[in-house]
Task: inverse folding
């Protein structure tokens, strides 16, 4: 029981740490209770609803692919459909740059979904500026209890107008996954709470000598996590979300040093030999197949690792528990003012209701009902799992309901000293090209880190 209380306290309290970035429990009951008022305010609703009262919602989320909540989402959608008689056209996809571009294009062409689970940082600026999503305050004018079960302080405001649009479901963290079988073979101890970059480099040297790749990362495809933590390692939780004015100021120099730190690790041979040409999927496979020791990624990767330990990735009953037990998760090595236990995380995504659905009397109530159902006190814990949520009253969590890697993640999170938002979410689009797409040029020395950072900052300040 003591452990259950600890898990609950961790889940409920993790988000009150130093974090910057980022319905009602009965969705169908709420929809029913407001039916009369809605009919008075929008008399056309009943007349325009499809025969039988069934409404079809187009919903796009990031709960797809190897996301650990993909199945939870599918189950929740089926339950909501059964409870309400409505239906969902699911257009969810894995969250990557291609997906973000697709979402932006859909809004530009009038093809946006009715409900969108998406990032609430800079990636959502364009459709908020265009007035294509509805604020929580506007929704509450008609549905007063909308998102009332959430801690208001943890609902992230838009960078555009400081209004709140997205109702969060599950939080995230970014940390370092470990293949302990490789560590054992190389004579390396499991990293702990005070792990430093100097210790990390010494361990990488041992792992390299044992003929393994120390770091699983595709720098030519997705350098995102190393980019984030390399910069963070030259700052502190208090300054990480400050975009530099130039590459020459103190914060700008921290960014430059971060890029050079990655360059040093590349020159030392700690990334896979094909790190500049490999895909993220390929280097992830190196990690799960026992060829690479360390992987910095997000909490969603737990599901991918678990899936790699199943003979059938879609059937949890085929899990090889012994294989899964060889994986662990710990803190990203620290440097300077950033302790290893200072992690990146937050509530950076949430459910948006689009103006398209809100202005459609046949869909408005259904869209609200859907979001309330997916963000209810009963549903959020299923999605938060080993992460965190914005619920006012987080329920107790029984560790016996989780697999061994999820429990390890919970224990890791219990030792976290701070969660800081993702600066790359503020530094989006073309701003990131020179250091994201240009990472191979930086680490090979063809482009100076300072020049790449300066180019990105110029794009940011001129947009």
Result:
């Amino acid at each position: 029981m003591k452990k259950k209380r600890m898990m609950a306290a961790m889940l409920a309290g993790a988000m009150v740490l130093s974090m910057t970035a980022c319905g009602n429990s009965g969705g169908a009951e709420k929809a029913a209770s407001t039916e009369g008022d809605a009919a008075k305010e929008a008399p056309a609703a009943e007349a325009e609803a499809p025969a039988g009262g069934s409404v079809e919602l187009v919903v796009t989320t990031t709960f797809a692919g190897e996301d650990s909540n993909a199945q939870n989402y599918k189950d929740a959608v089926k339950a909501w459909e059964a409870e309400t008689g409505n239906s969902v056209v699911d257009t969810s996809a894995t969250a990557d740059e291609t997906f973000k571009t697709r979402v932006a294009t859909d809004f530009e062409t009038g093809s946006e979904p009715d409900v969108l689970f998406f990032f609430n940082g800079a990636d959502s600026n364009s459709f908020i500026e265009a007035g294509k999503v509805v604020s929580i305050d506007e929704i509450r004018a008609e549905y007063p209890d909308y998102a009332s079960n959430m801690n208001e302080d943890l609902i992230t405001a838009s960078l555009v107008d400081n209004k709140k649009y997205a109702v969060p479901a599950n939080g995230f963290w970014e940390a370092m996954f470990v293949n302990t079988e490789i560590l054992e073979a190389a004579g390396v101890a499991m990293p702990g709470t005070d792990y430093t970059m100097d210790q990390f480099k010494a361990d990488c040297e041992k792992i390299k000598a044992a003929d393994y790749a120390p770091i699983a990362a595709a720098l030519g495809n997705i350098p995102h996590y190393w980019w984030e933590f390399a910069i963070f390692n030259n700052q502190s939780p208090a300054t990480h979300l400050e975009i530099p004015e130039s590459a020459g100021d103190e914060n700008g120099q921290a960014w430059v040093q971060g890029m050079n730190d990655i360059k040093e690790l590349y020159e030392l041979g700690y990334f896979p030999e094909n790190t500049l040409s490999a895909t993220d999927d390929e280097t992830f496979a190196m990690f799960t197949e026992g060829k690479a020791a360390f992987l910095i990624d997000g909490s969603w990767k737990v599901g991918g690792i678990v899936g790699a330990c199943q003979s059938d990735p879609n059937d949890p009953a085929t899990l090889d528990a012994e294989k899964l037990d060889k994986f662990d998760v710990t803190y990203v090595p620290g440097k300077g003012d950033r302790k290893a236990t200072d992690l990146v995380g937050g509530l950076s995504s949430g459910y948006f209701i689009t103006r398209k659905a809100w202005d459609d009397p046949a869909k408005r109530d259904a869209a609200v009902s859907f979001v309330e159902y997916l963000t209810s006190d009963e549903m959020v814990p299923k999605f938060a799992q080993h992460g965190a949520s914005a619920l006012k009253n987080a329920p107790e969590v029984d560790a016996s309901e989780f697999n061994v890697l999820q429990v390890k993640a919970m224990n890791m999170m219990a030792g976290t000293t701070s969660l800081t938002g993702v600066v790359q979410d503020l530094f989006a689009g073309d701003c990131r090209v020179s250091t994201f797409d240009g990472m191979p040029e930086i680490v090979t020395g063809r482009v100076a880190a300072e020049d790449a950072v300066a180019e990105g900052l110029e794009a940011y300040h001129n947009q």
